[in-house]
């Protein structure tokens, strides 16, 4: 799936300002009309016309949030420390994930982690 570029967002903005329909804008750029509609719905601030600059800014913010890894979000927190200690004890990511689910230490207070998150942290 190819993401919309800033240039395409500018085209959408100018098309909408000119009164063109979503379907016409999509047809001109070889995109499905649902892609354009989703873009407008997702990035249009209520009561204001669609803005390519604002849409790009919102997209960039979502992209940043999406790439936060669980252990990096909990930097210097008990879960992160626990995982580091368990890795030093030569436990596998699967074992660490299993222990946090089945027999969590008191200091974790119900926090769990998947083996995928442990692998992401290691690599």
Explain this structure.
- The protein is mainly α and 123 residues long.
- It has 2 domains: 61 residues; 53 residues.
- Helix content is 64%, strand content 0%.
- It is built from 8 helices and no strands.
- It starts with 5 loop residues before the first helix and ends with a helix.
Descriptive tags:
single chain, 123 residues, mainly alpha, 2 domains, 64% helix, Transposase-Integrase, IS30-like_HTH, transposase activity, Transposase IS30-like HTH domain-containing protein
Topology:
Blueprint: H1 6-17, H2 22-29, H3 33-43, H4 52-66, H5 70-73, H6 78-88, H7 93-102, H8 115-122
The biggest sheet amounts to:
none
| Quaternary assembly | single chain
**Total of DSSP H or I helical runs spanning 4+ residues:** 8
Parts with pLDDT < 50 across at least 5 consecutive residues: none
Proportion in β-strands: under 5%
Total number of β-strand segments?
0
* Terminal CA distance: 26 Å
Summarize the structure.
With 123 residues, this protein is an all-alpha fold. It is 64% helix and 0% strand.
């Amino acid at each position: 799936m190819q993401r919309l570029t800033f240039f395409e967002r500018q085209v959408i903005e100018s098309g909408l300002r000119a009164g063109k329909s979503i379907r016409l804008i999509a047809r001109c750029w070889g995109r499905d009309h649902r892609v354009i509609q989703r873009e407008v719905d997702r990035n249009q601030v209520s009561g204001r016309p669609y803005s390519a600059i604002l849409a790009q800014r919102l997209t960039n913010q979502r992209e940043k949030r999406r790439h936060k890894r669980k252990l990096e979000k909990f930097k210097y927190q008990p879960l992160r420390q626990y995982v580091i200690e368990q890795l030093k004890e030569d436990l596998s990511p699967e074992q660490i994930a299993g222990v946090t689910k089945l027999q969590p230490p008191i200091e974790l207070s119900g926090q769990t982690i998947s083996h995928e998150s442990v692998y992401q942290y290691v690599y």
